[in-house]
TrEMBL record:
It comes from Streptomyces adustus. One of its GO terms (cellular component) is cytosol. GO terms for molecular function: DNA binding; DNA-binding transcription factor activity. Pfam families: Rrf2. This is Rrf2 family transcriptional regulator. InterPro entries: TR_Rrf2-type_CS, Tscrpt_reg_Rrf2, WH-like_DNA-bd_sf, WH_DNA-bd_sf. Keywords: DNA-binding. NCBIfam families: rrf2_super (TIGR00738). It comes from the Bacteria.
Length: 152
């Protein structure tokens, strides 16, 4: 799995909104400055998040962006899907749409298992978990493994 700059920026922007609280609106400029995201790029991402139903926007002097629903109900996977599409794909194709033959036949269940693991973590961790630095124990356990931090 590769996390694109677009997905990374989308998650970071959503985290800024989560940290601001449900009633606060943040301007795109403030989010961009806080996270070091190019403003024009962020505007497009925020538009996608709005169209995806994750944020709402308000125009005017007191306008800005805020989460459309509580941070506890928005998974990191939700943000990535809106920003980039499917969490796991092979050559741009979702694993269930693939077929292999011969010695490569068992690749399909391997790709499906990889997708299931990615979904499990990114689908269960919410913006609230990350914004409050209270990651689930399972995630912390995986991250504490020294092998997780190395590139073989």
């Amino acid at each position: 799995m590769r996390i694109s700059a677009r997905a990374d920026y989308a998650v970071r922007a959503a985290l800024e909104l989560a940290a601001a609280g449900s009633e606060a609106s943040l301007k795109a400029e403030a989010i961009a400055a806080a996270q070091g995201i190019p403003h024009k790029f962020l505007e497009g991402i925020l538009g996608d998040l709005r169209r995806g139903g994750l944020v709402v926007s308000q125009r005017g002097g007191n306008g800005g962006y805020r989460l459309a629903r509580p941070a506890e109900s928005i998974a990191i996977a939700d943000v990535i899907r809106v920003a980039d599409g499917p969490l796991v794909s092979v050559r741009g194709v979702r694993p269930p749409e693939l077929s292999y033959s011969g010695p490569a036949e068992s690749l399909l269940p391997l790709w499906i298992a990889a997708r299931a693991n990615v979904r499990k973590i990114l689908g269960e961790v919410t913006l609230a978990h990350v914004a409050t630095a209270k990651l689930p124990d399972e995630v912390l356990s995986l991250a504490e493994d020294p092998e997780a931090w190395t590139n073989p």
